[in-house]
C-alpha cells in the first residue's frame, strides 16, 4: 500500500476535475498545490503456475514391447529472470479488444499553442481502478464507429502519460498525450487519422473503450538511485511524464528517487513544448536530481548552424553522457519518432570510438542488461 502526498504544478487541473469543466491549459499555469491522499496498492499478486506432477508410460530403449514404467517428473522450477526494472506484479492485457474497459473522459485539454505545427492534447480517463498500470506502459483505444468495411475500428496504442497513481492521485484514472494526425494524401485530400482525432475531440463525460495495459520495455528501473536518461520527441514525452511525476511529485513508502533524472525533449517550436511548467517545477523542487534540456528544432541551431534535434542537443553534453553510460546503474529510455534512434546512434558511434568501443556491440550489451530501452514509432 503506497501512501502518497502529491504536489501538482497545476492548480487548474484540480479545480477542473471536480466540476468536469472545460480545462484551460497545462501550458500556462504555474500555481502550485499540494494535498495528501491515500493511494491504492500498486503491487499486484502475479499468477504463478502451480508445480505440476504427472506420470506417463514410456517405451524402454531397445525393447519391442513397451515396459510399463512410472516416471514422476516435477516441472522444472521457472527460472526467474532477474530484472533491473520494477517488473514484479506488472499486469498486461487485462482488457482485450473483444471485451474492452469503458471509461469516461474526465478532461481533455490542448497542450500546444495556436501557432504550433499540429495539435497535441492531454486527456484523463476514469478507470475506477480497473485498469491497473505502471509508469511506462501503454493502453489501446478503440475509436467509436466503423472502418470502410463496416467493421469496428482496430485499436491504436498510446503510451500512458500519467504515473500509476494517476493525475488525481487516487489510482482511478489514466492519462494520454495525443497528437492529432492530419495530413494531405497524394490526391491532395486532407485526411484525418481515425483514433487520434476521435481522442482529441473527446468531450468530458464521453465514453472511451480501453484495452491493455501493455508493454514492459519502458518500465522504470527498480533502483531509486539510478541515473535515468529520457529521450523524447513530441508525444514521446508521455511515459517520461509518468516517470517524473512518480519521482518528483509523489511520495511513496517504498520508493524515494535519489538518483539523477535527465530529460531531453525535442519539439518543433517553443509553442509545441509539452508539460514545460510541470518540468520546470520539478527542477525547482529537486535541482540536484533533475536536469532538463529542450531541443526546439525550428527555432534553435547549434554552433555550426545545424537544426537543433534531440541528438544535436545531446551532442553538446557528449562527454558527460558517455561517462554516465559507462555506469552500471544508468538507464536510457527513448520514445517518439523512429528517426531519432538513428540520429542518437550516430552521435554514440563517434563517442564510443574515442574509447575504442564499437557502439552497436556496446548497445547490444546495454539492451541485454535492460539499460537501453527503446519504444519508437
Ligand atoms: C507503442 C506505441 C505508443 C504510441 N503512443 C502514442 C502516444 O503516446 N501519442 C500519440 O499521439 N501517438 C502514439 N502512438 C501512435 C498511435 O498509435 C497512432 O498510430 C496515431 O495516433 C495515429 O493513429 P490514427 O488512428 O489517428 O491514424 P490512422 O487513421 O491509423 O492513420 C495512420 C495512417 O495514415 C497514414 N499516414 C500518416 N501520416 C501520413 C502522411 N504524412 N502522409 C501519408 N500518409 C500518412 C499512414 O498509413 C498511417 O499508418 C503510439 C504508437 C505505438 C505503437
Ligand atoms: N511508444 C511509442 O512508440 C510512441 C509514444 C508516443 C509517440 N509516438 C510517436 O512519436 C511521434 C511523435 O510525433 P509528434 O508529432 O508528437 O512530434 P512533433 O511534435 O512533430 O516533434 C517531433 C520533433 O522531432 C523532430 N525530428 C524529426 N525528425 C527527427 C529525427 N530524425 N531525429 C530527431 N528528431 C527528429 C521534429 O523536428 P522537425 O519537425 O522540425 O523536423 C520535432 O522537433 C509520432 O509518430 C507518435 O506516433 C510513439
Helix/strand order: EHEEEEEEEEEEHEEHEHEHHEHHE
CATH level-1 class of the largest domain: Alpha Beta
Q: What hetero molecules are bound to the protein chains? A: flavin-adenine dinucleotide, NADP nicotinamide-adenine-dinucleotide phosphate
The spatial strand order of the largest sheet comes to: 8-7-12-5-6-9
Fourth CATH level, the homologous superfamily of the largest domain: Nucleotide-binding domain of ferredoxin-NADP reductase (FNR) module
Structural domain count: 2
Structural class label: alpha/beta
Number of strands: 17
End-to-end separation:
35 Å
Bulk shape? globular
The CATH architecture of the largest domain can be named as: 3-Layer(aba) Sandwich
Helix content: 10-25%
State the CATH topology of the largest domain: Rossmann fold
Main beta-sheet strand count, sense and barrel state: 6 strands, antiparallel
Tell me, rounded to a whole number, the average pLDDT.
Answer: 84
